[in-house]
Amino acid sequence: MILENFDETNYFEDKDEIKDDEVLEIPKEIRRLNIETHDYPIEVLVKKIQDKDIILRPHYQRDFIWDRTKCSLLIESILLNIPLPPVYLAEEEDGSLSVIDGLQRLHTFLDYFENKFSLTKMEGEGLVELNKLTYSGLQKDFPKAKRILNKGNIRTITISKDSDPDIKYDIFERLNSGSVKLNDQEIRNCIFHGKLNDAIMGTYNLEEQIYNNNGLRHNKVIQQSMNLTEAHPRYLDAEVVIRILAMMKYHNNLQTKYKNSMKLLINDYMKEHKNSSDHDIDLIKTEFENTMNKVFSVFEDKTFKRYSDTDVEKTLNRSIMDCIVVTFKDRKIEDLITKKFDIVKLMDEMLNDKNNKYIGRITSSSFRDLVTKWTSSKNVLKDRLELWDLNFNSLMDS
């Protein structure tokens, strides 16, 4: 399945940007990269895949299937001794290797060795007669071509498991050269796979090659606030879920945790929780579902939107979302519903303040600006959370 490019402004009102004079805070000591390089015959790579030493996870990477003409061209390249780019692998905690770049090539080799397709449109010198042959047919009728294919060398570059995951993420971004670039969440889906990712994405139906509708991203509040009728095909709903989880977890520790990049904060959350226990995953799911229920019980169709009275923006505002989820998660739903009208009114007043009543302590910016401009800047993030927290808690405790 090939997906068209998309525009995030169709889903989000705010932009995750930082000011020109600010930089990402990435400590040099954690930017470690250890790699190993090997040249493997194709038959060895296929055996490693079959033995699960190299794990192909096609459902973590969209647009992974080449058509059979392109697959045949790859086999032709090997037979003509045309050099191929290296395959990039990442070592997992259990010692197995996952694919960062080269999934299509490895999948093609495996499929051909397992006789899942026949060669087609082979036009190289001396190769036309190989058309319509499976691997078994090649082995029977053209043993020399079979030997050339088996012994064809592929260079692999493996990122060791003790390398920093952010480095792995960066490499994936740089190697991301498909016809449609992977977005941040699609890369996370490949790098941070595990129990948490499964809980967010939903269980995967291998037979139909689709995700079941049982992940946190399928939550009705998330779907409605993003104006979706089904899960987002490029996982933007999953990114919203992880951002909510990360903000609820880290909002009291942003001074040391936040590096002027919401992307890195989301990555950190996935990195720290990807293999949480079943018990901890259940707690995460319960807190998320309960918080979404509380938010919608108060804001209804205004949930995570900027509004003025009955005039509501169409797209979700993630900066407003940040403020609401961190203050609602520990409140009782009964208390929130009791002050529902006042809470909705307070947000309206803060968003449309014309008297400079709601001004950030650090940036001296209005609340409206804090949720619409330079929203990934650390000081802007801290200011909007503090400003909403102060006024919301004052209302709730009055």
Descriptive account of the structure:
- This protein has 398 residues and is an alpha/beta fold.
- The protein has 2 domains: 8-27 and 179-396, no CATH class; 34-159, no CATH class.
- Helices cover 46% and strands 9% of the residues.
- The chain contains 18 helices and 9 strands.
- The strands form 3 sheets. Strands 1-5-3-4-2 form a 5-stranded mixed β-sheet. A two-stranded antiparallel ribbon has the order 6-7.
- α10 (236-250) packs across α14 and α16 runs antiparallel to α18 (378-396).
- It is elongated, with a radius of gyration of 25 Å.
- The termini are far apart.
- The model is unreliable at 1-5 (pLDDT under 50).
SSE topology sketch:
Elements: E1 35-41, H1 42-50, E2 54-55, H2 68-79, E3 87-91, E4 97-101, H3 103-113, H4 135-141, H5 143-151, E5 153-159, H6 165-175, H7 184-191, H8 195-201, E6 204-205, E7 210-211, H9 220-225, H10 236-250, H11 254-257, H12 262-273, H13 278-299, E8 307-308, E9 311-312, H14 318-328, H15 333-338, H16 340-351, H17 367-370, H18 378-396
Parallel strand pairs: 2-4, 3-5
Antiparallel strand pairs: 1-5, 3-4, 6-7, 8-9
Strand order of the largest sheet: 1-5-3-4-2
Kindly state the number of beta strands.
Answer: 9
Number of separate domains = 2
**N-to-C terminal Cα separation, in Å?**
55 Å
What's the pLDDT, averaged over the residues?
Answer: 88
Give the fraction of residues assigned to helices. 40-55%
User: What are the segments in which pLDDT stays under 50 over at least 5 consecutive residues?
Assistant: 1-5
* Major β-sheet profile: 5 strands, mixed
Task: Output the helix-strand order.
Answer: EHEHEEHHHEHHHEEHHHHHEEHHHHH
Work out the helix count: 18
Compute the gyration radius: what is it?
25 Å
Strand content: 5-15%
Q: What global shape is seen?
A: elongated
Q: Which structural class do you get from the secondary structure elements?
A: alpha/beta
Protein name: GmrSD restriction endonucleases N-terminal domain-containing protein
InterPro entries: GmrSD_N (IPR004919)
Organism: Aliarcobacter vitoriensis
Domain GmrSD restriction endonucleases N-terminal: 44-192
